[in-house]
Design a protein that fits this description.
- The protein is of the alpha+beta class.
- Helices cover 26% and strands 41% of the residues.
- It is built from two helices and four strands.
- The chain has helices spanning 21-32, 64-74, and strands spanning 6-15, 38-47, 50-59, 81-86.
- Strands 2-3-1-4 form a four-stranded antiparallel beta sheet, with helices on one face.
- The chain starts with 5 loop residues before the first strand and ends with a strand.
- The relative contact order is 0.35.
């Protein structure tokens, strides 16, 4: 049984190619490091010059807004959109 209070999906999208995926994933995980989270899974897709990264997290839903803000700041040079949703 998980000690986390909730679960969420973090969605990151923007212009990008396959070569950008690892840097964006690394920056995202660095932004998540200060939070108590567990990454269950992450998937990415690159299509027609667009990148989508989805991360399934165990986390405290109270922190989800701060998580989203910190990831947005970490990816500001990539001009990515960041959204989250409790699941």
């Amino acid at each position: 049984m998980s000690n986390f209070k909730g679960r969420a999906i973090l969605l990151i999208s923007g212009a990008g190619e396959q070569s950008d995926v690892e840097e964006i994933r690394r920056k995202t995980l660095e932004a998540l490091a200060p939070f108590t989270v567990h990454v269950r899974e992450n998937q990415s897709i690159c299509l027609a010059g667009r990148l989508i990264l989805a991360i399934d997290l165990d986390c405290d839903p109270v922190h989800l807004s701060a998580i989203e803000d910190d990831v947005r700041v970490a990816l500001s040079s990539h001009k990515c959109d960041v959204a989250s949703e409790d699941i």
